[in-house]
Amino acid sequence: YTIDEKEQLIMxxxxxxxxxxYEYADDxxxxxxxxxxxxxxxxxxxxxxxxxxxxxxxxGIELVQAQQQLTxxxxxxxxxxxxxxxxxxxxxxxxxxxxxxxVDIKVEGLNIATIHDLQEGDNVSAxxxxxxxxxxxxxxxxxxxxxxxxxxxxDTYNERIVIKTANGETVSYDLSTNVSVEIDGExxxxxxxxxxxxxxxxVVDDKVLYIEVASGAEGKVISINTSRNLISVQLNNGNxxxxxxxxxxxxxxxxxxxxxxxxxxxxxxxxxxANVDGLVYEIDVYCSGMFExxxxxxxSERLKVEDEDxxxxxxxxxxxxxxxxxxxxxxxxVDDFKVGDVLEVYFMGNDVRKIVTMQTAVGTITSIxxxxxxxxxxxxxxxxxSFTFTGKSTVTxxxxxxxxxxAIAVGDRVQVYETIDKHxxxxxxxxxxxxxxxVATDYESVYIQKTGTSSYTRYYCDDDCILxxxxxxxxxxxxxxxxxxxxxxVGTTAYEIERY
Length: 500
Known about the structure:
Mean pLDDT: 86
Distance between the termini: 39 Å
Number of strands: 39
Structural class: mainly beta
Radius of gyration: 29 Å
Strand content: over 45%
Strand order of the largest sheet: 29-28-27-32-33-30-31
Oligomer: single chain
Helix content: under 10%
Number of helices: 0
């Protein structure tokens, strides 16, 4: 019911509505599924919990069901696409709810809906798990009517669009003031809808509420004739089609500067955009490039990255079509990226399709094959990682450096970093022993007095630094002044602290 961390008191309400206040012990054991090193601060008012009490002192508390797991029905009163949340007014009052990255939004008449398709005034039913909306269904939306054709004109001033349908008829429609535009799976502005684009319109109450620009056909190039403006593609469905492309066709090839049709080669995977008459006005080329993260903007789900030439660009992760692969992380989000991470990014044209983080691992070497250069590491979560030692790879221990695989051995604790040009930088950890002098309140650093010295040294704890005693995990709050410890460090960063 309430938690007072300062006084170490928890008030709970039982099934009979009776309130009881407990004092909790310094070594209170908090158990929350899928949360590493949970504390009482991770519990929320309204959570359903199971208690362990000894001599009227609370010694254990386990989360049974989070308060955030429920269904809310009400009216949307505000929408923030930047913050990915909605405010819903229900019988219990108004509350702001954040949408899960993989939220399933259901809107009558739309095959795929996102937050951009929601409107103030929508009556909705929201399923909430772990504090996030995982399913959001709009209950009061008219399905509308659907029309397809090629854009002849877009009048943003008078808010009208003119299209030519497949039977050659020219028709025009008024645009809704909050019309949604989706181009190749991404939400854009109405000004991005151009003449000759093939579109699908959803019309509700005689106004266009939704415009979807067809993504185009995808496949592999089997021939291209630049003198005749002809390209043949084996489509993903197995069929082969030939297309005539415009003399001023736009070619989107992210890893090439100022690309044109002469940069397209047999074997390339492409996406073809053609108008209703079959003329190709745009070609996207599938490609990949290596980048390093230089900044992370969590609120806008955006990464700023640089390539090996120092050219920068932004990667937006708020698109459900973007796949992220990160070793050891299930369902990674923008918050799992760090400055310095090396990424291999796959593009279809200018659209990000997939982001793969180059392997970075911290752990113990478990095997080495000198002949192939392949070695394996088991990290602190028990996961195994394999790497290949190449001619450009380096091993560093303090001020010493080597480019020979013989510099590492089974049992070594190491940090392995894969660089933007795909070679390895291996740092051997150094063992430091001493006595704890102080621990930062946020556990970000510790001061120790090294064995055999009278001076104090500060070590910064890596975000994933582990604390153990006798081979078992130890809660950080139990690390005290005068504890004897062994630190495994690279420079001034500690990756493992062992109390003994």
